Every structure is written in C-alpha cells, then in structure tokens.
Amino acid sequence: MTAIATLGSHCALQVLKGAKDEGFKTILVCEKKREKLYKRFRFIDELIMVDSFVEILDQKCQQTLEQNDAIIIPHGTLIAQMSSEQIESIKTPIFGNKWILRWESDREMKEKLMREAKLPMPRKVKNPNEINNLVIVKRQGAAGGKGYFIASNKEEYNKKRNGLISQGIISKDETLYIQEYAAGVLAYLQFFYSPLLEELEFFGADQRHESDIEGLARIPAEQQLKSNKVSSFNVIGNSPLVLRESLLEEVYTMGENFVDATKRLVAPGMNGPFCIEGVYDENARFTSFEFSARIVAGTNIYMDGSPYYSLLYNEPMSMGKRIAREVKNANESNQLDKIIT
Ligand code: ATP
What we know:
- This protein is about 30% helix and about 25% strand.
- By secondary structure, the chain is α+β, with helices and mostly antiparallel strands.
- It has 3 domains: about 5-95, Rossmann fold (3-Layer(aba) Sandwich); about 105-120 and about 185-220 and about 230-340, D-amino Acid Aminotransferase, Chain A, domain 1 (2-Layer Sandwich), CATH 3.30.470; about 125-180, Dna Ligase, domain 1 (2-Layer Sandwich).
- It has a 5-stranded antiparallel β-sheet with strand order 11-10-9-12-13.
- A hairpin with a 5-residue loop joins strand 12 and strand 13.
- The protein starts with a strand and ends in a 9-residue tail after the last helix.
- Bound molecules: adenosine-5'-triphosphate.
C-alpha cells in the first residue's frame, strides 16, 4: 500500500490527517526541533528525523520513502527551503506536477504563465526610477511576504531597501521585484484540478493576515506618520472568505484558463491543488498578483470541509483528504502516472 509523506510544516497536519482517513500510512519528514509538536498527533505513523529539510535528498531518507512506496505531497515549505533543481532531483514521486514549482519560484516565469492564463495582473515596474504610483516591492521565491515593503517613489524605495539590508533581512545583491500596489479586498482562491476526472473544483477562498502591515490600521494616522519602521507582509494566519455568488462564474473561468495555460506551457499541466491570489477592486474586478502551484496553507482553515466542498461532497472533505482520495482513485484504477511526477 502506498504511503503519503510530507515535510513537517505549513499544512502537514491536514495533509496527513486526510491521508490517514483515506487509509494510507502517513510519514512526516520532521526537523528535530519540531519532534515534540508532531508527536502529539496520532495519525502520523512514522517520523523521519532530520536536521534540515534538504536531507530529504539524502540516500537514507529516499530509501525509507522508497521502501514505503511513498508519494510526497509538496507544499510551501518545500519551495521556500529548497531550490528548483533540488526539488526536481527528488527521486520519490511527487504529487501533482513538480516541474511547475519552478514556475512558481521564478518571478519572470510566473509572470509568463499568468499572462498565458489571461489573469489580469498589476503593472510591473522595471526599475526604481519608474516608480510613480504606490508599489509593492517583493523578494524572489515564496518568501511568505517577509521583507516586502511599500513605496511611492524612488527615494522611499531606496531608504526602505537600505534599511532592510542593514537589518540583514535582504541582501545587497538581491534582485527585488517591483509591482504596482493593487488596492481592494484580498482573496486567495483555492482550486483542485483532477486529471482523472478532467474536472476543476473550486474548494474555497481565504484571506491572509500579514504582520505588521495589518497592525498599522490599528493606530491613528498621526502615529503612522511618525513611525520609521518598514512594514512587512509576514503571514501569520488565515481566515475564511465566502464570495458573492455572482463572482463564482468568473472564479471558475480563471481556474480553467489557468489549467489550460499550464497544459500548454508545463506538461503535464496543473494537476492537484493550486491557488490564484489577488484583490477585488471597487468594481469587483479581480487583479491577480500571484499563484501557488500546490496546496496553500490557507486551506488549513477548512480541515473539516469547506463551504463549497460541502456542495460537491456529501462528507467532510479537506484539501488534504481530497489529495489522498485522488491518490487512492488513481491507485485503484492503475492511473498513478497521471497524478505524480
Ligand atoms: P506566498 O508564496 O506565501 O504566496 P509570496 O512571497 O510569493 O507569498 P505574494 O503572495 O506575491 O508573496 O505577496 C505577499 C503579500 O503581499 C500578499 O499576500 C498581499 O497581501 C501583498 N501583495 C502582493 N502583491 C500585491 C499587490 N500587487 N498589491 C497589493 N498587495 C499585494
């Protein structure tokens, strides 16, 4: 019987709980510092202890995974802590499309895929001299918003960038990505595409709570103006969001366009969970600044099933369980090659 494995962070709990509920053996690659935490959960059958997650590349770790016939469920921590080359060199089968993870990590490739999917995006600002509107400045890869900042002109950009360099948050030679700031209601749209059913499912939406940018709204403008601190977008947690029903048609269209675009650019396409992230403006028009080509931590809010999945499934269905169900269905119908890379 196949085992389901993942790294101990991000959304590991719901992934392994879902796997256990679907009858799989569950394996957690666990950093020693988190052993105590993860041992609290009885649905985790085996811990592979490591000092750091890159040890997943070591022969010993790969052997254990192979002996268990394991499939790895990738999540944000894998992308944040390993290079695309390292991820692509993992011998254990990875759920979904491991080749697309490179497109998520590289800002230029990301933009290309989003354009191909016809997602409306904020304007990219090529260099700091061209900043003439409010912009957000980002780091490469999935930095989770840490070290990001807002600026409205070149001087402010330089001041904040230098401040972050001197604090050691970003490095001097790091290429930063500048994008027009999109104002409105944040919405992170979570999907699952099943290559077995050839069907797109909308799972749910969430909002991220980011520190300390959100804290700013809690102090009066007078104090905000006096503060010299560079606000960051470090994700602290997520909360649920239910969309106006009239927006759903467009949500499905965006998801389907994205899946079609990935089939053209990154074979075998976007299989499994993904997320389109953006903002609704005052006319309910969506602008997308980002996608995640794997399960997002925002799905953790629906461990017992989301509002939209309660319409599709007559049982509690988390994203972790949906992934495990897909593996189970593929296994039973001899189609594992369709859902792993
Ligand atoms: P992750 O991989 O965790 O999704 P990331 O490092 O790729 O994060 P983004 O999701 O692009 O970063 O941005 C982090 C946060 O910054 C967003 O959640 C959002 O609050 C804010 N943000 C990003 N781009 C924009 C934009 N163009 N306009 C307004 N806010 C933005």
